[in-house]
Write the structure tokens for this entry.
Amino acid sequence: MLLLRQKLLPNNIQEYSGLAVYKLTGEFSQNTARAVEAAGSSMIAQGQFSFDLSGLERIDSAAVAVMIEWQRQADKQNRAMEFHDAPAGLLSLIRLYGLTEQFQLTASAGRH
């Protein structure tokens, strides 16, 4: 994903080349899953289906479970979630669980 322009908007919404993207930051694990899921669900209810995962630092399998729930919510609205700049650790978990085809994912450039 080419990021030509970045503009900070309220509620962790960033604009990349005219596309509004919800940016998740920090820990996304069992410790934070409920709060992160609630925040993401709120964004989905508002019509936001594009999430930037590049700000995630600590990830475990709870992140995958929450992403599945977000995808279910989007499916109910006949929409697809887009997850941009997924960290390598998250991509590894998704591959491990055989869920690569479940999500629209882009890998994070330069993060391993």
In short: Helices lie at 33-45, 61-76, 88-96. Residues 1-11 have pLDDT under 50 and may be disordered.
